[in-house]
Request: fold
Amino acid sequence: MADAPSWAVDAGSPAVNASMAAASSSGGTAGEEIADRTSVITGKLKSIYRKVVLPVEKKYSYDYFYESPLLTDIEFDAKPQVLLIGQYSVGKTSFIRYLLGRDFPGQRIGPEPTTDRFTVLINGPEERTIPGNALSVHPDLPFRGLERFGVSFLSRFEGSQMPSSVLRSVTLVDTPGVLSGEKQRTNRGYDFTKVVAWFAERADLILLLFDAHKLDISDELKGAIDVLKGHEDKIRCILNKADQIDRQQLMRVYGALLWSLGKTMTSPEVARVYVGSFWQEPLKNLDNSELFEMEEKDLMKDLAVLPRQSAVRKINELVKRIRKVKTLAYIIGYLKSQMPNLMGKEKKQQKLIADLPNVFRTILKKYNLAPGDFPDITSFSSKLREVKFSEFSTLSQKQIDALDEVLNKDIPALMEELPSERDSPETLRAKMGGAIGANKNVSAMPVPKTGTKYGKAESYESNPFGYGQDDQDHYWALQESADRLLPSFEALGPEGGFLSTQKARDVLVKTGLSKDQLRQIWNLSDMDRDGLFDHDEYVVAMFLCDAVIQKGRPIPVELPASVIPPSKRSIMNKGGP
Reply:
């Protein structure tokens, strides 16, 4: 074992100087870069919507046929939303409390259906609850569209405001526990599935929670899942409370859940299911602790990248809306063209409604449309019975051409402004920094620390001065270097605790080492092979760079055991992922 100083990375070493140079040239913190990028994209999307899409929506009554209000600037500017859905007592509210790291105003937790209302958790300077009626007319929040569900719903809708680093990045939506059995017959006073559909359309991520002890999917839950059709890319499933069963039972429960979901969700793709115990209490059964810890890390990564993906999600949602608007325009225009000028209008209208499947097929073939862009035929036909076809607007080819131009030119141009793997470092920096008027409150979402929960001691728990070389399980030769390098790592703007591939590459390139040397250093440092650098991997990379630059050492074939961070030893002992 070499002496401790030979393992150290000096704060002013060439590798650290390269790291700081990369941080200064990147144009600000990760939060500022994300905000800049999202702000520019959002401004252009608002302009496209107001000038091109909104007039078509008004002309063909999109808000009536799809029960989706016309969009406002506030909805474009809104933070990413995470919607939680599940039967009562599956742990939705406990999961939110775990994310926040504390209780929140209006919190109700219990084995019975305790959360009897939709609760939106938002960031604010003081702790308070905001009644639903006030929340729906708040000028800075995107909930005005909920007014259509009436006072009976708004009295069961509230906002929970509190200062939170998590809520600076995302908005969380807690829903009432989905009822089962006889409880389903209870009248909520509002259409639960329609409200879920409203939130799902605006959510960036939808979490479906299930209890390992009750996998039955009730009629109300099936109805809620049915209205998520078209949003399958947002859905993630969570099998909660899995620490209360043993390994064999878990295999059976997991299989049963996938079988139930396969019958309920129409998508051919298998939904991603995270398995574990998603609250702050220690596991009751440690048989599957490693699996649960990895599953939780994957879920937290999914949540942590939401702010970074916000711009892409906004583009995606607008494209879906434009495609539906365009199809609706063709349908309304066709129905109008089939109406007689004078006599028999009502009879012709009834005939067209009765023959709606053939009408849809005719329009699909005539205009070369996608079947998935058409509205649900049952609900659409019921809407048609309430209106007069003779009052419909005729098809405007000029407006259709404008929508096509948005889809074929404007949106691809916006996508070009987002970072991609084809960008050079200079192009990437130009894209990610420098926009004016960005919201500096947008940042990467912090995630809970989970060490003690999985039966592991937190760092330095036994001794405030760290571990000695005789404690081989916990000793890390680079721990002092890791403490000194933390400010330079944070200056690079990690997102969710990870440096992107491009940022990590920029740091290594600035050391001046050859491409072949950097390739070897990357392979040794990226121990979990995810293409990202966490703090520990960054420290190892800096150590290897300085060993070559300052001490003239050759790059080792494999890392010495004492240089491998304790957090990565289980991976390395298995021969890597």
User: Anything to note?
Assistant: The mean pLDDT is 81. The beta strands are 81-86, 118-123, 128-131, 157-162, 171-174, 205-211, 235-240, 273-275. The chain has 22 helices and eight strands.
